[in-house]
Write a structure and sequence with these properties.
Layout lengths: L1 H17 L9 H10 L8 H24 L4 E9 L5 E10 L5 E11 L4 H15 L7 E6 L3 H7 L4
Parallel strand pairs: 1-4
Antiparallel strand pairs: 1-2, 2-3
Helix pairs in contact: 4-5
Length: 159
C-alpha cells in the first residue's frame, strides 16, 4: 500500500505538470507500459485523481489565505472575454509584495458565466471571491480591468 500510494502520488503529479486527463493512467497504452515497468500497479483512477486534486486545492487555498492575511494591501486584476461561441469568462488575479519584498501574482478565480445580467453577476462573484480570501475593501488598493463596460460596472464600488 505504501508503494502504491507513492506511485499514485507521482502519477497525479505527472497529470498536473503535463495537464493530462484524469484517466490517462487507466488507458490501454499506459496500462501496457505499467505492466512492464511496474508489474501489479494499475495507476490511479480518475476518481482518485479528482479527490487528490480537491485536497491539494484546499491546502493551497488555505496557505494563500494565511499568506494574504499578513499582507496589508493588494491589487487585483479582473479580465473578461467572450469566446466565439458567446461564452463569457472571468479571471480574477491578486498581486502583492511579500514581507520579503518579492512580487507575487496568483489567480484567485477563473469562471465561465452563462446568461444575462452579466455585470450584476460579475460584481457578485468578485465580491464573493474577495471575501473568500479575506480581502476586505480596505485591503484592495488597486483594481485593473480590461476596460469592458460590464467590468467597469462590476468593479466600480469595490474600493
Amino acid at each position: 500500500p505504501a508503494r502504491k500510494n507513492k506511485l499514485d502520488e507521482a502519477a497525479i503529479k505527472a497529470i498536473i505538470i503535463d495537464s493530462r486527463s484524469f484517466g490517462d493512467f487507466r488507458r490501454a497504452g499506459m496500462q501496457s507500459f505499467l505492466r512492464i515497468a511496474t508489474p501489479g500497479y494499475h495507476g490511479p483512477t480518475a476518481r482518485t485523481v479528482q479527490r487528490s486534486l480537491k485536497k491539494l486545492y484546499d491546502e493551497k487555498k488555505k496557505a494563500l489565505i494565511e499568506q494574504l492575511a499578513n499582507i496589508p494591501c493588494v491589487s487585483i486584476t479582473a479580465d473578461t472575454w467572450c469566446s466565439s461561441r458567446k461564452h463569457h469568462y472571468l479571471c480574477v488575479t491578486v498581486h502583492f509584495i511579500s514581507q520579503n519584498y518579492e512580487q507575487h501574482g496568483t489567480v484567485l478565480s477563473f469562471r465561465r458565466f452563462h446568461g444575462r445580467s452579466f455585470a450584476i453577476r460579475l460584481r457578485r462573484h468578485i465580491h464573493t471571491v474577495l471575501g473568500m480570501f479575506g480581502l476586505e475593501k480596505g485591503k484592495v488598493h488597486g483594481t485593473t480591468t480590461d476596460n469592458g463596460s460590464d467590468m467597469r460596472k462590476a468593479t466600480q464600488n469595490m474600493k
